[in-house]
């Protein structure tokens, strides 16, 4: 039986706050994209990570939803290059929160998972206008 990421993080709300604090420090422009409170956003963030941590084989069924999320991100004003920042901050946060459990193998698995998700979100987003 797999352990959920939420349980591994011990305090998922604190982990989400840590992630967003790191993200806003890395790219202050991102803060403006979050018009509403971060609590619900943090819960969605952890739930999304938990889905992909547990069963990436379901990705085919989730692909359309992930692409629609990319469309929404583009509508909110997310720039394609910001996905790289999010990926870096995600790795930093997981490393800080998981400690010794964040082995090089775990890091590689998360990096590949995030690259897949970000790639699909970008594929779903309309091309930027010049």
Automatic annotation (TrEMBL):
Signal sequence extent: none
First-level EC class: oxidoreductase
Segments forming domain Globin: 1-126
Keyword entries, A-Z: Dioxygenase, Heme, Iron, Metal-binding, Oxidoreductase, Oxygen transport, Transport
Record-listed E.C. numbers: 1.14.12.17
Domain of life, source organism: Bacteria
Name of one Pfam family that matches: Globin
GO molecular function: FAD binding; heme binding; metal ion binding; nitric oxide dioxygenase NAD(P)H activity; oxygen binding; oxygen carrier activity
InterPro entries xrefs: Globin, Globin-like_sf, Globin/Proto
PROSITE patterns assigned: GLOBIN (PS01033)
GO biological process: cellular response to nitrosative stress; nitric oxide catabolic process
UniProt similarity note: Belongs to the globin family.
UniProt protein name: Nitric oxide dioxygenase
Organism this protein belongs to: Deinococcus humi
């Amino acid at each position: 039986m797999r352990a959920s990421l939420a349980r591994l993080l011990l305090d998922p709300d604190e982990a989400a706050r840590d992630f967003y604090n790191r993200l806003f420090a890395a790219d202050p422009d991102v803060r403006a994209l979050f018009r509403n409170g971060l609590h619900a956003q943090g819960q969605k963030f952890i739930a999304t990570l938990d889905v992909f941590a547990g069963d990436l084989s379901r990705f085919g069924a989730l692909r359309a939803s992930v692409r629609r999320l990319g469309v929404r991100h583009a509508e909110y004003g997310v720039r394609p290059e910001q996905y790289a920042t999010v990926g870096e901050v995600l790795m930093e946060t997981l490393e800080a929160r998981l400690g010794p459990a964040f082995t090089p193998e775990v890091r590689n698995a998360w990096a590949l998972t995030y690259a897949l998700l970000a790639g699909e979100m970008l594929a779903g987003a309309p091309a930027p206008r010049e």
